Amino acid sequence: MTEINVMETIPEKMIIPLKQHNGDICEPLVSKGDVVKVGQKIGECPSDKCAAIHSSVCGEVVSVEESSHPSGNRINSVIIHPVEKTECESFIPFKDSGKEQLISAIKEAGIVENYGTPTQLVLNPPDCDIDTVLVNATASEWVGHSYETPLEYASQMLDSLRLLMEAAGASRGVIVLRNDDKDSIDAFDGLDYEGKTIMVAPLIGKRRVDYYFNDQDTDIIVVSQDKIYGKNIFEYFTYNVTGRKVPFRCTPASAGVAICGVKSAKAIHDLVNTGMPYIETVVTVSGQVNNPQHLLVKIGTPFRDVIEACGGYRGEPAKLISNGVITGVAQYEEEVPVTKMTTSIIVQGKDEVLKDISKECIHCARCVDVCPVDLIPNRIAALANQGRFDECKQMYVENCIECGRCSSVCPSKIHIMQLLQYSKEAIAKAYEDLSEKESSNLKSGCACGSE
Amino acid sequence: MSMPTLLIQSMAILGGLTLAIGVMLIVASKKFKVDVNPLVEEVTEILPGVNCGACGYAGCSDFAEHVVEDNAPLTGCPVGGFDVAKEIGGILGKEVSEGEAEYPYVRCNGGVHCVDRFNYEGIEDCKAVMMLSEGEKGCNYGCMGRGTCVRACPFDAIHIGEDRLPKINKNLCTSCGLCIESCPNDILVFAKESEKVHVVCMSHDKGKTVKAVCENGCIGCKLCEKACPVDAVHVTKFLAEIDQEKCISCGKCVEKCPQGCIEMR
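ok -> structure tokens follow
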């Protein structure tokens, strides 16, 4: 089993951005010269679409200023000079129960899904009812390795799922594992939970979760499927697991589904049992570093210190990417902090980074072969390049999950995925201005289109 | 059947058919006639016919219809300009007073003088660049020089110069405003021909921040304010602005500006 190490060294400065989620930026509660403790709240939510920010270290606030952020923009951040002592705010384990209390506690603890939406909005979306909670463990199953035994991981995940279901008011819960992740499947398979034996069920053909809920006659099931990789996978993921369709520009909430990650499930478990807010996260460091590893890092640690903790660069680095080679964002400086949305840091060497000039499409259809959602990427890209976005829409560009496979296989090095993203953005913008009446047929379900 | 009879017969059938269809067409054209105002056709012929949509209507003939029937302004066609307006006025028997020509100007002086934060690799389009971390330029206000305006121009009047800034060819420009609409950073705006002095920077950042990223950006030093004899220049939010009504185009601020971001044209 892969080990997860804890980052011991204390960096020279911590940069804690006041926005580590999609939504509104937090207002700072501290100013220059203040002394902060571990777990102290330093960013307050001005609205509902927001998650609170906490200090992850003890130290003195150096300044509150705009600083770099892994998303590439400059975001107002609290910069803290940390000191060695670890004085904590007294964390109080969460005692009450009930949907409302859990939701507000999650908001206060600042728990955010790794794709950016604050967890309380996923579980309790405005005007929506959630009936099924999915825990997506297909990509970050290694978080489980921070537990001592696989058994502990499995039973704690199931406890977390119970909590998530309680918070969402959902009647059914599903943990989705990956088919080739044998460790996790073994951990869950045959486990006794609440008097029932858990059986890991594969999602094959038309056997989706409904079948297994009926078959196993229970409200919590564990299923497995192939990994779905991409930036915008929720519609596809929801369909694959539950068979429900999510309309374009809608969240899975409109289909009554909440999707949570393993990290946020763990964070909620920690919150309820220890009262600790979301201040540390596990980051995978891989690529051209001397000691690639999984590292438990305090939120706000600059990438440079994380890489130093992994033994520094191997050779000369050429590209630093946060969150995955294909879907991540390449960073242009090392001074960016680890945020709640950071799942991995990848360093690429000189010979791995290729720069090519796009040439004409040769219609080899390799992109068509690899597309997991059966689009015709080359045609859509050509239409998008000419600004014919209506035709892109007719070719279902909205279904693109932004996995980037088309761009990576293209022998002409056409920026297919970027063109697809561009057309999606243009379509979304065009429908944004439509009046309620005109767009009513485009919207369906709750909270749809309003985000 | 002998050959001549066959010939005559087929000619008779064809001739009869032609006659019948001809009569039907005449009847139909009389019965289903759509009344088109002859003035609309006349006006449409005068208009440039590029269907650019700059007037705000669906195309040239649509504009013509609105001019004739709905009192749309005669000067509504920016492409045709005053000459076309005068001709339309002649047809409709209306007077037109000459408005001043307006051309877009570029409110950024950065280009190659502005540092790049990273090397962008992707599709050549300003809007696409903007989707990535608000553009590769160090300055969040400036021109990205990826030529979205160039592609928006139906008259080939804009080109990206060697300094990676758009250059407008006034001889070809028809003031249709499509480039202004296309720019994601609102770099381009209309300015009247008589307005000579312009601030070619849009950065509201503090002087220190601007200096770090751009050699030519406005740092809000207020030297222009002091140099102006008629109090037409004011620095608000670290950016000089010129009150075109007061400006006498003396060029003193242009000389004083240490960053060269006030331009006289």
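DSSP finds 14 helices and 20 strands in chain A.
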